[in-house]
Structure prediction request, 241 residues.
Amino acid sequence: MLDWLRRAPAEPHRIVVGERTLPVEIRRLAHARRLTLRLAPDGSAVRVTMPQWAPTREALVFARARAEWLERQLAALPARQPLAPGATLPFRGVPHTIAHDPAAPRRVRRDGAALRLGGPAEALEPRLRRWLEGEARALFTADLAEYAARAGVPVPPLALSNARRRWGSCSAKGMVRLNWRLAMAPDAVRRSVVAHEVAHLVHFDHSPRFHALLGDLFEGDLDAANRWLRRNGRALYAALG
Prediction:
């Protein structure tokens, strides 16, 4: 067999940020006119968006030149705090107090702005996560049905995602994956991500036609929803791992 057929996949590009080495994820978009840089919500990668014609080396130079800014972004990441009685957990954009009574039923119950549950205190976190995942599935199911009807496409199969770097994705076969942490975000933010993935069922790209359809599907302010995720998305990862 020829050597080029046996070659391993290329190693991901990486840069040094402070005392860490992070992968650089490069995304080329047809409508991009300049390079933009951001940190993944959990701090696990550097993301560069660039025009399709720009060379890869330009993205790496761009990222390395901003290493000090990236280091400040890493330092500003919210600290991960274990959940405990009396702590708060956001649900649909509203902080909810964790009300724990060891003698109460273990099942999580939403009571106004409180999440009530019983059982051992050391099992709070996994039970709250399972509850959030169930709520996320119900919310996503309703959102997908609504937006699929607007787009005139069948309701796609849904899978919950635990991705550390993406809020949603749509496969070439029409499977939509959505990050369960979006159940903690305001409704408009969650729905903007769902609408985005439904638009991909019609246009599997980021072309002007895709953006036009997304603007028709989503009833809210897309720019405001995107700004919220950029500013607060990291806190969703810190709230519950």
Remarks:
- The chain has six helices and eleven strands.
- The CA atoms of residues 80 and 105 lie 27 Å apart.
- Residues 1-9 have pLDDT under 50 and may be disordered.
- The two ends are 45 Å apart (CA to CA).
